[in-house]
Amino acid sequence: MIKFLRKLIFFPFRKVSRNARKTNWSPERNRKRVGKSLFFLAIALFTVFIFRFVWLITVNHVGDTNLKEMAKSNYQSTVPVQAKRGTIYDRTGTPIAVDSSTYTIYAVIDKTQVDSNGNPLYVKKEDFDKVATFLSSKLKIDRSLIEKQLNSKLKQVQFGAEGSNISLQQMQEIQKAAENEKIVGLGFTSNVSRSYPFGNFASQFIGIARPKDENGFQTLKGDMGLEKAFDNVLSGENGQETYQKDIYGRPIPGTTKVDKAVKNGQDVYTTLDAQLQRNLEGYMDKAATDTGAQQLSGTLVDAHTGEILATSQRPTYTATTINSAEKQKYFTWNSLLSQSAFEPGSTFKTFLMAGALDSGKVNLNETYQRKLQVYDTTINDWDVTENKSYTLPETVTYAQGFALSSNIGMSKIEMNMGDALWGSYLNKFKFGLKVRAGLDGENPGALPSSNAVSQIQSSFGQGVAVTPLQLIRGWTAIAGNGTMLEPHIVSKVVDTNTKTSLTSKAEVVGHPVSNEAASGVRDLMLTVNTDPVYGTSYSTAGDPEQDLAAGPLFMVNGEPAAVKTGTAQIAATTGGYMTGSQDYLYSAVVMYPAKNPDFIFYMNVKIPSEPWTLKYIARVANPLLTSAEAMKGDLAATSSTDSDIKAGKVTIENYKGKDSGDTADNLRRTVISPVIIGTGAKVTAQSIAEGEKVAANTRILLLTNDKDQVMPDMYDWSKKEVEQLANWFGIKVTYEGSGNKVLTQSIETSTNVKKGQTLTVKMGN
To answer: Residue range 128-137: average pLDDT?
Structure first.
C-alpha cells in the first residue's frame, strides 16, 4: 500500500518531467498541466481516504484490533464487582467466620524506581543488612532467605510463607516501624482472606475457606467443614459495572452503570453457642493434656431440638496453625463428629435395652449367670479375672447387668430377641444411614454382618460402626420419650439480598421405641451413676479436683445425671483387635436432668497414655452441662433478626434422576426436611412438584429406585404424605382416630411392602 501511494504521488511529476523533455511547452503551459495533474491526484487521494474511512466505520477493525472497543476503553471501563462471602455466626449472632484482608510484604530492588525528585523508592544495596535484620525481627523470616531474595536479579521480591498472611494490625505496625527506621522500598499487597476471630473454635466442624483465582481475581472458596458444605450458600454471585473515566483513568462521578447486580452470599447461623463452645474448647485442652490420648471428641446437644450446641476434637488447628497441623501426631482433617466411624462399645447398650424393653423381651428383675459361649467365641465381662471368675457377683439381674455394663447380659438379651428383631431396631434407630444434616463427606457407618457372633457382639457395641452424629440421633429418642429428632447444625440462613430468612425447627424423623421403653432406659442409666455396687460411674474415691465426695461421678447442680459408659476394643490394621493395656476407646453419654433431659453430652477418648479414669470425661461433662443448664432460657430463645427480614420461601426443583443422598444434603442446606424412601441411588419421584414455593422445614418425600418397596417410619407424617406413599407403593390405607399426624402404623418400619397390602394408620396430634 505504501509503495503504491508513493508511485501515485510522484506520478504527475515524472509525467511532467518526461513531457517537458519531449516538448517545448512554455513554463506557463507546463504549470497548467501540473495543476491539472495535482487536481486529479487530490481527487484520487480524497476518494481513497473517504473509502478507507467508510470502511473503518463499517468494519471497526484494523487487522486484529477492534477500533470500537479500543476507543471505548479510552473513556469507559467495565469491571467485575466481587460478591461478599456470607458470614458464619453462632446461634446468637456472634461472628465465627468473616471476610477480611491479609497482606504480603515485598521489597522493591529495581533501581529505576524513584520519585519525582529522584529519591530512591527501592532498597539500596547498602541497606540490605539493615532490612534483613528488620524483617527477621518483625516477621521471624529466615535471614538467609531474606538475603537470597534481596540479592536476586528480580525487580521485586517476596519472602515466602512467613512474609504472607500478615494481619492489618501487624501490617500497620511494620509500616510505622519501617518509617521510624527510615527504611524505604518495602510495600504490601492486599489479599482476600477469611478471618476466624475465636481461633480454636470447632475447627474441623466449621472448616476453612481459602482464596482461589477465579475470573482474574481472588475468590474465597470453602475448603473443609461447614465452609465447604455450604459453599454455594455462602459464595453469592459476582456482579458487573461500567463507568466513564477521565483522561487520567479516574471514574467520573455519576456515570456508573450496573450491568449485573452483585448478589452477596447468604449468612449462615449455626446452632453452636459461642460461650458453651469456648468452654468446651478449654475443657478439651485440659483433657487432652491430662489423658495424653491420641484423639478426643465431645459434643453437646439440645435434647428438645436436636441442635448441636458445641462440638470439638483433638488434635485440632486454627487458621494460623493450619499449615503445620499435620505435624501433630494422630492429627486428622476429618470431623470426628460425622466423617469417621468407629465401634462405640458399651454406650451402644442403650439401644439394645430400649429395643428389649419396647418389645417385652427382657425382665429386668430376672437373674442370669455371667458365663456365655457363642460357638467358638467366649463372651466376657470387663471384671473377669485371670482364673475366669469375676470381681463382682456372677449372678445378677438384668438391671444390675446394665449398671455394671455386662456384655454377657446384653448378649443374652439379644439372643432372646433374635437377630431379626434386634436388626429391626437398628433400622428404626437408622444406624447404617447417614444423618444428612448438610455436612460434607459424612460417613454412613455399618451394620453388623449376618453371622451369629457379629449380631450378638453388636448388642454391646462391637462389630457395628457408627459416628457420634448417628449416636446422637438415636439418643434423642431415649431422651425424648421415644420421639427421634434429626440433629441440626444450622439455626437459620439469612439472605441479605432479598431480606429473607429460613429458620429451622425441631425435625421429627421417627419413633423407634415407646415412651415407657425410653423412660426405662433413662432410669437404668441413672443407676449406672448411682448404684454403689454395680454402677460403672459411681466412684468410691470421688474427685477432689471437682470437689466431689464418694458417689456419682457425673453431677450437675448437685444432682446425678443419667449415664452410660463405654470401653470399646479398637480394630487393628493387621486384623483382629489391638491388645495394649490401654488400647481402647473410652466413652460416656450423659443426659441431664435424668428424668426429663434438656441436654445430651457425648465424649470419647481414644488410647490415652495415662492410666484411664472416667474422671477425665466427668471433668468436661459436669461444668459444661452446669453452664448449659444455667443458660437454658437463653438457648431456647431464637436469635434476633432485623425487623425488615421476612420469612423466605424455597423453590422446589426437579430432582428426578439426581443422586438421592446429594439431593437430601442440598435440601437440608436450604432448611427443607427431606425423607429418602428406600436405599436407591437415584430419585425417581418427589412429593412436591417442581416450581412450587414452600416454607422452611417443609417435609419432602424422595422416592428412590430401590428394587424393594421398604416401609419408612411415618411417625409425625401428615395424611397427605401418607396418601402420596400409598400411591407410589400401590397399597390401601385405612385410618383410625382423628388428628393431623401419624402416631402408629400397622406395617413395621424397614419391612418390605407388596402392592395391594392394606396399611392401617392411627392419627392424632
So the answer is: 95
* Burial profile 581-616: b = 16 or more Cβ within 10 angstroms, e = fewer: ebebbbbbbbbbbbeebbbbbbbbbbbbeeebbbbb
**Which of 727, 729, 728 has the alpha carbon at shortest distance from 754?**
729
For residues 376-386, b (16+ Cβ closer than 10 Å) or e, as one string? eeebebeeeee
Catalytic residue among 312, 335, 338, 346: 346
Give rounded-to-5 percent helix, strand, coil for the chain.
35, 25, 40
For residue 308, pLDDT over 90 is answered with yes
| Residue 195 annotated among the catalytic residues of the structure | no
Give the SS3 label for residue 192. strand
* Residue 615: closest CA among 694, 522, 683, 544: 544
Q: What angle do CA 656, 658, 659 make, to 5 degrees?
A: 135
Taking each helix axis from N to C end, the angle separating 468-479 and 515-530, rounded to the nearest 10 degrees, works out to 110
**pLDDT for 56 beyond 80:** no
What cell numbers appear for 741 in the block? 399426624
- Do 341 and 471 touch, CB atoms closer than 8 A? no
Do 186 and 130 touch, CB atoms closer than 8 A?
no
Burial of 98 (0-12, 13-18, 19+ CB in 10 A): middle
CA angle 168, 88, 301 (to 5 degrees): 130
Least confident segment among 307-311, 403-407, 631-635:
631-635
Dihedrals phi, psi of 112, to nearest 5 degrees: -80, -10
Q: 253 or 496: which carries more pLDDT confidence?
A: 496
Cβ burial, residue 309 (10 Å; 0-12/13-18/19+): buried
- Please report which confidence band the pLDDT of residue 620 belongs to, taking 50, 70 and 90 as the band edges: very high
Q: What percent of the chain has pLDDT over 90?
A: 78
Q: Is 370 exposed, middle or buried (0-12, 13-18, 19+ CB in 10 A)?
A: buried
141, HSE (Cβ side, Cα atoms, 13 Å): 27
What does the pLDDT read at residue 236?
A: 86
Read off the C-alpha cell for 208: 476453612
**94 band by pLDDT with thresholds 50, 70 and 90:** very high
pLDDT number for residue 285: 98
Burial of 183 (0-12, 13-18, 19+ CB in 10 A): middle
Strand partners, 646: 500
Angle CA 697–700–704, to nearest 5: 145
Q: Which three cell numbers stand for residue 470?
A: 448417628
* Residue 694: closest CA among 663, 724, 671, 677: 671
End-to-end alpha-carbon separation of the chain, Å? 92
Give the three-class secondary structure for 137. helix
Lowest mean pLDDT among 96-100, 255-259, 713-717, 731-735: 255-259
Closest CA to 201 of 98, 340, 323: 98
Q: Could you tell me which residues come within 8 angstroms of residue 286 by beta carbon, excluding any fewer than 6 positions away?
A: 619
Rounded CA gap, 97 and 88, in Å?
5
- Identify the residue whose cell numbers are 424423623: 509
Beta bridge mates, 298: 312, 603
Q: What's residue 578's pLDDT?
A: 96
- Among the listed residues 388, 391, 410, the one whose alpha carbon sits nearest the alpha carbon of residue 401: 410
Burial zone of 738 (CB within 10 Å; 0-12 exposed, 13-18 middle, 19+ buried): exposed
**428 CB-side CA count, 13 A:** 27
Contact 600, 590 (CB under 8 A): yes
Prediction pTM value:
0.86
Q: What pLDDT score was predicted for residue 218?
A: 77
**Cβ(309)–Cβ(273) below 8 Å:** yes
- For residue 95, say if its preceding peptide bond is cis, omega within 30 degrees of 0: no
Question: What is the mean pLDDT of the segment spanning 189-199?
Answer: 90
